[in-house]
Each structure stands twice: as C-alpha cells, then as structure tokens.
Amino acid sequence: MAQAFDAEAQQAVLASRAEQALALAKALGADAAEVGASVDQGVEVSVRLGDVETVELSRDQGVAVTVYVGQRKGSASSTDAGEDSIRAAVEKALAIARYTGEDPAAGLADASLMASENPDMGVHHPWALSTEQAIELALESERAGREVEGITQSEGATLSTGEGVRVYANSHGFVGTQKGSRHGLSCLLIAEDDSGMQRDFDYTTARNPAELRDPAEVGREAARKTLRRLGARRPPTGTFPVLFDPSQAGGLVGHLMSALAGGALYRQASFLCDSLGKPLFPEWFSLVERPMEHGATASSPFDGDGVQTRNNRFIDRGKVASYMLSAYSARRLSMETTGNAGGARNLRLDAPLEPVEALLKRMDRGVWVTELMGQGVNGVTGDYSRGASGFWIENGEVQYPIEEFTIAGNLEQMFASLAGLGDDLDTRGSVHTGSWLIDSMTVAGN
C-alpha cells in the first residue's frame, strides 16, 4: 500500500503554506487574496475474470491562488504545494490581475459571512486496508456475480479507497480546513442470449468503510440487473407516463440545480431566470439542502468562498424559493450569497413518498427508465431529449426490458407534471432521492 497518510500533519502544512501565500500576495501588492490547497492519497485495484488487472496508488496535491488588485482579478494554480511553486503562482496571478479588466462584482465574500462554526463533520474515516485485502474484496464481488446462472462474461470489479485534506484561506484572516475520505466498490457483468448481449453494474460507496455493502451482495445485484435486461426490444412510440429509477432521477435534480445556479442566471442562460416565487412543482414537493449533515457525502461547514454553509430550501411547496449563489454570482444579481460557492451540498426531498409498486400501478402503461444516454438537455430552454433503456409497463406490471428509444419533454413541464416520488431512496450520492413518476413524456421507439 501507499505510505501512511497523516491527515493532521497535512492539514497543518497546507494551512501554513496558504498563510504564506496570502502574506506574499499582500507584500507584492495585492489588495486581497484567497488560496485553496488540497492533498489526496488513494489506492484502486481492479480485477477481471479472477485475475488482478491493475493496482494504482495515487497521491495528488495542488494549490490555487486568486489575487485582487482593486477590482481586477488574477488566478494561477500549481500541482505542487512547495514554497517555490506557491511563490510562482502568486507572482503569475498578480501579473494576470494587472492586465485584466475591472469587474465590479470581483472580490472576497464579506468578512462578516466567514464560517465561525467548524465542527467535525464525521466525514473522515481512513481504511487500514492492505493491497492484498483490497484485491480479495474485489475478487469476492466479481466471483459472487459470475456464479449467478446466466452470467457469461465480466468487465471486472474495482475497489477504491482514499482520503484527503483541503484548506481554504483568505486575507480576511479566515482559514478553513477539512479532512475527508471516500471508499467504493463496483462490479460490471455481461450476459448473453439469442437476442444479444447485455451488461449492467452495481456499486456501493461511503465515507465510512463500515457502511459499504457486502462485496458479494454487490456482485449478485450486478448479475440480477444484467440478467433482467436480456431479451430487450424497442417500445412503441407515443405519449406515456415515465418512471425514472432513483439512479436516473438524481439527474433531474442536477438539471434543476444547474438552472438555479447563479452563473447560469446572470448570464441569462437558464430556463428559470426570474423564477423566484413562481410555481414549478406540485404543491406537495419541496427540495432542501443540508450541508452540515453529519457523515454525509458532501458535508462541509464552509463553501468555496469561506462562507458559513446553511440549510437552504430551494423549492418550497412547489415554488422556487431560492437560487444557488456564490458571493460573485450574488453580486451580479444584486442578491446575497446562499453559501453555495462550489455547488449544493446534500440535497434532500421534503415530500410524501410511496412504494414503487404503487407508482407502477398508477402509471398503468408506460416506461420505467433505468439508464439514460446522451447529453440532450438544453439549459436555456429546458428542452430534454435522452436515449434510454429500461422496462415496458402494462397494467402496472413489468412486461419486458426495452432499449434503443428516446424520451423527450421540457424540464419545466416535466417538473410541473411530477405525479409521485418513490420510497426507494438511493443514498449513495449527494442527492438522496427515490423514483420520479412524470405524468407524460414523448417516447420514440418503434
């Protein structure tokens, strides 16, 4: 395995280097400056057909410096956090700032907004795992999947484990540090019959290795998902209800947040411009952010501007309640930051959930989407068109797998026609959501 990672020592070193960079920027003429630095170390092993394919040990570090001369801004970065590299980055950032145009919105977030609470978020759980143990866990997962009758081939299993430290500091005197870890295991399998070849996968990921699912379970679930795709055909063309599996419903939340992001709004590149207070979803639907949730995937006490994070309610009883703003985008929109420099953290549904079986019964005849392909989403208009695969539903029950079809609609109309949410929550990412039933979309198949 890689050399031991002393997170506390790395934290102290990065914080010291960041403060050195700030002092140097001031000495060289910057009116204000901010520094982000990080170091990450990890191990990844991949196996296939019972043999080890790769063992990768990684160690990455970097530092990014932004300086402000008046309202002129310059940024530079380096993959080396050494003193010489930091000096070079500061000098380059200053040289850039002196030649850029003035931006009235440029500058640090207000000093009064800097994070004053920095509790342990419970997101750092190192895994003392040897290379041999990592390999055996990956082999166990693949072996369990390949033992399922009908599985004919494997793309392998991969186990990864890593931890890191990040530091953000600025010339307000704010220095924020955070340790974190991330562990995961995935398995991808192949099955074949007279209709052709199909593949699918399953995975588990967690901050704490104790919360990972059993490797054999991951392999068997990958096998189940692969086998259920055999015999796929194209669905009929028409207008039908569409049920998005949780693994795909999270993407709908992602499109929503992209449209609520300050950068898209001040550029007038969002279909949700000037939407505050306007209905977007049914009245029973709300979406909240909980960035301080203990042990969660994206928890952090401060955002990319050093601003204290807070619970936000982006959708409240169906209406747009808040945009997602950094200090810069807030100034561009003449608003206040929402503590979202770097994006949203830990999005959660605040809405009634029901069993997936009930959603299937309600849709009666339509499409259950379990995989999406392509990038056919227009953030300016909200037009949505994606290739998909999944299952055809008739009389509220699964009839057969389907593939090679397209679903299309408009995100604003899709959100308004949200008919129900499943209780099959996928909690593996920053967005926790179950299935989404959209009342009507265009399906292009046969």
TrEMBL record:
Keyword Amino-acid biosynthesis annotated: no
SUPFAM superfamilies found in the cross-reference section: Putative modulator of DNA gyrase, PmbA/TldD (SSF111283)
UniProtKB keywords: Hydrolase, Metalloprotease, Protease
Its EC number(s): 3.4.24.-
Domain (Metalloprotease TldD/E N-terminal): residue spans on this chain: 33-97
Protein origin, superkingdom: Bacteria
MF GO annotations: metallopeptidase activity
Gene name for this UniProt entry: pmbA
Species name: Halomonas piscis
Protein name: Metalloprotease PmbA
Domain Metalloprotease TldD/E C-terminal, chain residue ranges per copy: 237-445
Limits of the Metalloprotease TldD/E central domain: 125-230
Enzyme superclass (EC): hydrolase
One Pfam entry name: PmbA_TldD_2nd
